[in-house]
Amino acid sequence: MNTGSLWAITCYFNPVEYKSRLENYRVFRKHLAVPLVTVEWSLGPTFQLGSGDADILVQLHGWSLMWQKERLLNIAVQHVPQTCECIAWLDCDVVFEEGDWAGRARAALDQYPLLRLFNKRYDLAREESIERVSASDEAEEAFEGAAPLQEVRSPGWHGLVVAI
């Protein structure tokens, strides 16, 4: 399946500079099977991400912590290439169990305008690595009512994994 017209967007902000946040982002990026637009917001003068951390990296400074995630995702959408037909909005700390999620999502988006890309999620303790969780571990069922594609691993439950 050609996933070339599917891009992922995410935002990254770590005002307290937790080491685990950056590590989780790098694991997320390593396992991501599609091109990525990341918008990083920094409260201070420096950024944590570099040019190799996303296909398109937008870095912004700011002062207010309010509504940053929503604002950064809107900015990310504006930076997706014009050739992009579909967007997967992903939190930057998830890893899909199956490597074919992008092809399956792209095919499903030919039939449905909006997808929820998972049916189970694994919440991890702070010290757990998202790379060491297996499908046999206990998972909490996700929301009802949408056609799920995948299981995801995440160190927290902070948002959604959707494609449009």
Characterise the protein shown here.
The chain has 164 residues and is of the alpha/beta class. The protein has a single domain (6-163), classed as Alpha-Beta Complex (Spore Coat Polysaccharide Biosynthesis Protein SpsA, Chain A), CATH 3.90.550. Helix content is 21%, strand content 25%. It has three helices and ten strands. The protein has helices at residues 19-31, 68-79, 101-109, and strands at residues 6-13, 36-42, 56-61, 86-89, 95-96, 115-116, 120-123, 140-141, 151-154, 162-163. A six-stranded mixed sheet has the order 3-2-1-4-10-6. A four-stranded mixed sheet has the order 5-9-7-8. Strand 1 (6-13), helix 1 (19-31) and strand 2 form a beta-alpha-beta unit. The chain starts with 5 loop residues before the first strand and ends with a strand.
Quick description:
With 164 residues, this protein is an alpha/beta fold. Helices cover 21% and strands 25% of the residues. The longest helix is centred in the first third of the chain and has 13 residues.
List the helices and strands and how they pair.
Elements: E1 6-13, H1 19-31, E2 36-42, E3 56-61, H2 68-79, E4 86-89, E5 95-96, H3 101-109, E6 115-116, E7 120-123, E8 140-141, E9 151-154, E10 162-163
Parallel strand pairs: 1-2, 1-4, 2-3, 7-9
Antiparallel strand pairs: 4-10, 5-9, 6-10, 7-8
